[in-house]
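User: Modeling request: complex.
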Amino acid sequence: MADYETVQHDVLVIGAGGAGLRAAIEASAAGVSVGLVCKSLLGKAHTVMAEGGIAAALANVDERDNWKVHFADTMRGGQYVNQWRMAELHAKEAPDRVRELEAWGAVFDRTQDGRILQRNFGGHKYPRLAHVGDRTGLEMIRTLQDHGVHQGIEVHMEHTILSILKAGDRAVGAFGYERERGRFKIFRAKAIVLATGGIGRAYKITSNSWEYTGDGHSLAYEAGAELIDMEFMQFHPTGMVWPPSVCGILVTEGVRGEGGILTNKEGRRFMFDQIPENYRAQTADNEEEGWRYCQGDKNARRPPELLTRDHIARCIVREIKEGRGSPHGGVYLDIAWIKQKLPNAADYIKRKLPSMYHQFKQLADIDITEQPMEVGPTTHYIMGGIHVDPDTQMSRVPGLFAAGECAAGINGANRLGGNSLSDLLVFGKRAGEFAAKFAKDNSLGEIDPPQADKIDMAAREALQPFERSAAENPYLVQRDLQETMQDNVGIVRNETEMKSALEHLRTFWERANRAGVTGHREFNPGWHTALDLKNLLTVSEAITRAALERKESRGAQFREDYPNKDERFANLNTMISKADDGSMKVRLEPLPEMPDYLKRVVEDNR
Amino acid sequence: MNATFKIWRGDASGGAFRDYTTEISEGMVVLDAVHDIQRTQAGDLACRWNCKAGKCGSCSAEVNGIPKLMCMTRMSDLPLDEPITVEPMKAFPIIKDLITDVSWNFEVKKKIKKFKPRPPDARDGTWRMAQEDIDRVQEFRKCIECFLCQDVCHVLRDHQMHDKFIGPRFLIHVAALEMHPLDTEDRIEELRNAQGIGYCNITKCCTKVCPESIEA
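Assistant: Request completed. Predicted assembly structure:
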């Protein structure tokens, strides 16, 4: 094996957003040495962009809330294909995880009596989101970062992992490069936690940054783990649509939580037109009741703008397709209208939604206290990901754990807003705890000769783009891939388009293998883009194959060739793994049976 | 419509401005133009970015000589009849092109004493805090760590006193900790001595470039 710089930790955490940081903190607190790899600088991961809040049944604003209601809401939102045990742990443990953030210095907005304030959000029966204006993610990541750096965690900023190293079945390390000098590095560890976030860069219109190329999904898949629920891709209903350069940037659901309404070009509140059966009992049937709910009237039901994201995104697509959209191909999201109801509404909006106010003012010349916003769906979050044990977060590869967006199970077919930040905390902590335990119970694995060969091969392969002349431009391959996924495996799907996507993906693999870059290895974004293509292609194929396999419409998956829910799929998850011949294998796996006490919780909260 | 950019290309050993021309469309920001140039003309042009919405503080640079987030600088706010210069921050060592080595900032933060809350005193094992008592702390906690304030601060930029002065970013970090209603730690002695608050001339250049408009 060539000579590579090698670092060693008991636990290696790959990814430094909310889940990775929380895992690192927990592992470190358990007394093991921890290395934390970030693709960007520390504190810049996608968690920083989360706006609305952290869902946790603290019951500070509505005393009727508790873990059971939160659990039932999460299962209903996920159309009951969630892993019940993860949803249970999440609902039970989220309040403690939020209180812990406060003990570490987070400063949440307050109730009148000085407790953590909670706001309304889609699919949550009661006001449940602990928040700081509309910059909750910043508060969360900074709190974890500042707490973590005092614990002696070793942070490897601007490093990208190319493969997981194994000894036999077990994960024993990772191989990657540092961006600054472009040098390769070996990380040896007794346990590894993947916390790499999402795959949003597989789509053209996305709220995700350059980092989210499905690295953890792909690394785990290559290492022998399974991916579950990959067909369920969340398109957030409200992204900016105009001007073109900001298309896809997120507009927080908090706008609707504070009373914002969705209208079409005729001024109609179209969300009242179609309320799904399983939400009818808890949804307002007139505008006046919806407003009373937003004002805290406990006898009112929530407005249809606070239905789940999958449903709202589809309603918006319908309005646009049927010619009732806004001038730039979206619909209107109006918070300014609350002036009719509230004195000092402009100040209220600026206080509760400061970053939305600035975002629209600075990037679109729109004053949201005066004018409606134009919004449309944007690729936001993947419910699918690495299949893990619900309690320990370990994948089927011993020593390889996963948490946060790259892991899956808690959200089922659709994630409720606010459940992501709490997921990061609850399962980040668990992954850190059990990775530390695994590290204590096991010695450092050997990098044997076959592994050494694999490392050399990975290094050679990674450097090939520098050797190709007259090659494919990696940026253009990425762009074409994004267009294919957007057009063929987007919000509305059918078999013909998805099969054509698979054909296209095959040609993109060929093009990716011909990708070439100019310049040298030091901080070369063209090279990084070329290397990320493999992961993007792997997750794109996984999404498409899983979506083809689920021949029904459920949650975020809408198939126009199978437009209804089908009982045959009600108890099945799609499961993807790499076959021995290197091909991608999909199978359907029965859901674990929910125990009776939880079935009763679901029934009691119908 | 086209715009011409002069983008600094190089590394620690030296470099120069290079000219690029790219098409400008409605609503475009400087970061979009840099990405277009990267995609079509200079694949290895190094720049940091993430959120593209002024929330992460990654794409700090100097646009026409002024410290800015590239993602929040609209092309329509710049004079397009002359070339737009884009160059890296000056207060930190160059790595490559628009990227600087900002690791000093992370080291400084490690040395600031961590948050130390008083024991929980509410009956439910937590604390009570009034909103009006945390408004000021929340204002400071809006910081996205773009380090533009550090870049513009002449104590760091011109006098390179990184070993004697922690800079505006960390002065407000300490302030946020000190003003936190639950915190019991005392950081004043370090602030006066090791952290060099006395070097601040209160010219408020830092406030002027702050993309979060944090009022210090």
